[in-house]
């Protein structure tokens, strides 16, 4: 079912973007699971580009969970001071590191991840997707929250949890793992705030495009 109560084969409809973006690595430039977790926490309300910029020096100083676990906020601040809400995020990261202690203890379940400070469902979905773990939800980042209502998948909302819940009701489980990131990449590249509709590989199923084409 879609937003309008019609039976829709979304797996088939989204095939062009699922194929186009299949397995594409997240824009955060991480090299292992520890780095991904740290960068996901830092990227909340900030841009991936900004986090990518500060990451190399940060990970030189803190190469793993053990080195982070024995640090403190004052020592961490200089490395992340250009990140939005860096004070709060420093405390989150230290608490995560002290809880987990070692890289190999990073939980790879939704329940285990959201139990950690600074990690919500969106972040957990990103970590699980990048670790190639079967999806327990759908990534609903800012791009997905903008694009999914445009397509006609869900009603407009600014609430990521609500958007994810609605997407999970509409989309078949077999595409959960990739569809969030596929819609996100579509939003980054084509379905921008000013969308490039003519370039869109799924414009034929998009409610917004149908309206403007009129």
UniProtKB/TrEMBL annotation:
One of its GO terms (biological process) is base-excision repair, AP site formation. Its cofactor is [4Fe-4S] cluster. One of its GO terms (molecular function) is 4 iron, 4 sulfur cluster binding. It is an enzyme of class 4 (lyase). Residues 42-189 form the HhH-GPD domain. It comes from the Bacteria. Pfam families: HhH-GPD (PF00730). Its EC number is 4.2.99.18. The keyword Hydrolase applies. Keywords: 4Fe-4S, DNA damage, Endonuclease, Glycosidase, Hydrolase, Iron, Iron-sulfur, Lyase, Metal-binding, Nuclease. PANTHER family: A/G-SPECIFIC ADENINE GLYCOSYLASE/ENDONUCLEASE III, ENDONUCLEASE III. This is Endonuclease III.
């Amino acid at each position: 079912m879609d937003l309008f109560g019609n039976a829709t084969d979304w797996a088939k409809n989204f095939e062009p973007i699922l194929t186009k973006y299949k397995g594409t690595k997240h824009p955060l430039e991480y090299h292992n699971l520890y780095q991904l977790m740290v960068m996901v926490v830092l990227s909340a309300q900030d841009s991936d580009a900004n986090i990518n910029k500060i990451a190399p020096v940060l990970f030189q100083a803190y190469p793993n969970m053990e080195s982070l676990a024995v640090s403190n906020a004052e020592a961490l601040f200089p490395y992340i001071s250009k990140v939005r809400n860096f004070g709060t995020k420093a405390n989150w990261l230290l608490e995560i590191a002290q809880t987990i202690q070692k890289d190999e203890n990073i939980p790879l379940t939704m329940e285990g991840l959201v139990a950690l400070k600074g990690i919500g469902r969106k972040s957990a979905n990103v970590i699980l997707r990048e670790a190639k773990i079967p999806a327990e939800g759908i990534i609903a980042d800012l791009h997905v929250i903008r694009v999914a209502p445009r397509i006609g998948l869900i009603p407009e909302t600014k609430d990521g949890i609500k958007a994810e819940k609605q997407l999970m009701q509409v989309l078949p489980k077999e595409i959960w793992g990739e569809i969030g990131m596929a819609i996100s990449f579509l939003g980054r590249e084509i379905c921008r705030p000013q969308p490039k509709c003519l370039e869109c590989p799924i414009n034929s199923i998009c409610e917004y495009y149908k309206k403007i084409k009129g």
